[in-house]
Amino acid sequence: MKILNLYAGIGGNRKLWTPKGDEHDITAVELDPKIAKIYQDFFPKDKMIVADAHQYLLDHFKEFEFIWSSPPCPTHSRLNTMLNKKGINHYPDMRLYQEIIFLKKWFYRKFCIENVISYYEPFIKPIEVDNHYFWTNFFIGNFPKGSREHCSDYYTLSNKKGFDIKQYKDIDYMKILHNCVQPELGLHILNFAMEKEKTLFEMEKI
Q1: Is the pLDDT of residue 11 over 90?
Q2: What is the pTM assigned to this prediction?
Q3: Does 73 reside within a domain?
Q4: Of 147, 136, 151, which Cα lies nearest the Cα of 189?
Q5: Are 199 and 108 in contact (CB under 8 A)?
Q6: Are the beta carbons of 117 and 132 closer than 8 angstroms?
Q7: Any domain includes 98
Q8: For the segment 35-88, what is each residue's pLDDT rounded down to a tens digit?
Q9: What pLDDT, on the 0 to 100 scale, is given for residue 90?
Q10: Structural domain contains residue 115
């Protein structure tokens, strides 16, 4: 498939998509050049674009068969409950819901938008899988719930996610690894996206 991988990070969700290297035509979009460089080192056959993923989606969505988007999650996280008690407040970043509404209405292929479990009741009902929220237009099935190794030390987390990034300088190793979707979960969802079932959009038109 021709895949768009938005807010790509270093590619946690994407890691197992092409075990032989060239099964899919993948375009990745990442705003931070340092993070984009790490992604490109791990996945040299992907087309990497250093740009605003939110705008890139708007300009190029029709070019792809499957879109994965992981918009920034800190302003939606349940950690905001604790921060609020300390007097630190943020507006939720509504680009998340802009993308959900946009793709649900205008994208006729398959998409998956991923984010954290939020501190508020989601405005658009998601599917909850392995401590993540997902909004899709196709069935994604069950997935075994992961452990809390998500909060572990660097080496445990590096082994779990499958990325050793200690050779890179001036980056927040733990933050980057925490932001990685578990590769097995990314593969699980792509496998369902590749099935020939109709999208929910197509089913609603019948």
Answers
A1: yes
A2: 0.90
A3: yes
A4: 136
A5: yes
A6: yes
A7: yes
A8: 999 999 999 999 999 999 999 999 999 999 999 999 998 888 877 677 677 888
A9: 82
A10: yes
The enclosing domain of 97 has a CATH number of 3.40.50.150
**170 Rama sector, left if φ>0, alpha if ψ -120 to 50, beta otherwise:** left
Q: Residue 106 sits in which domain range? A: 2-147+182-205
Quick check: is 165 in a domain? no
C-alpha–C-alpha distance, residues 181 and 179, integer Å: 6
Residues in the chain: 206
- What pLDDT, in 10s, does the model give residues 85-101? 788 888 889 999 999 99
Number of domains in the chain: 1
How would you label 104-128 residue by residue, b for 16+ Cβ within 10 Å and e otherwise?
beebebbbbbbbbebbeebeeebee
168 CB-near residues (< 8 Å, 6+ apart)? 34, 37, 38
> Residue 20: is its pLDDT beyond 80?
no
